[in-house]
């Protein structure tokens, strides 16, 4: 079991920045990712990090604006979000899986409770 807890969400104006954190504990995982849930839409994968070397892959929707990073011990991962847009509004989750290359939410085993991000125009 992996326990995950997100924090750092809030209300920000368009063009602003936020940094989300995801604290992980429990079992070892291979991949940790950030997802976004907007009401009425499917949960969207934003960024995926491989634990072995810290490699990150970004979705096109956030490439160049969002940066995923981690602390050295891999206990916490971050999502730095810059130049936020109203369409970035949603509930942000971190999740883990044992397999690299997985992008669909149903392929992820453990999830945090989510943190709300609201971007006003």
> So what's the overall shape?
globular
Overall pLDDT score:
95
Distance between the termini: 39 Å
Number of strands: 11
Q: Class by helix and strand content?
A: mainly beta
Range of helix content: under 10%
Largest sheet: 7 strands, mixed
Elements, N to C (H/E): EEEEEEEEEEE
Global Rg: 13 Å
Strand content: over 45%
Specify the number of helices.
0
Uncertain runs are: none
Which secondary structure elements does this structure contain, and how are they paired or packed?
Blueprint: E1 2-7, E2 10-13, E3 18-26, E4 31-37, E5 44-50, E6 56-58, E7 66-70, E8 76-81, E9 90-97, E10 110-111, E11 115-120
Parallel strand pairs: 2-11
Antiparallel strand pairs: 1-3, 3-8, 4-5, 4-9, 5-6, 7-8, 9-10, 9-11
Description of the molecule:
This protein is mostly beta strands and 121 residues long. The chain has strands spanning 2-7, 10-13, 18-26, 31-37, 44-50, 56-58, 66-70, 76-81, 90-97, 110-111, 115-120. It is globular. The N and C termini lie far apart (39 Å). The model has no long low-confidence stretch (mean pLDDT 95).
Describe the structure concisely:
Helix content is 0%, strand content 52%. It is built from no helices and eleven strands.
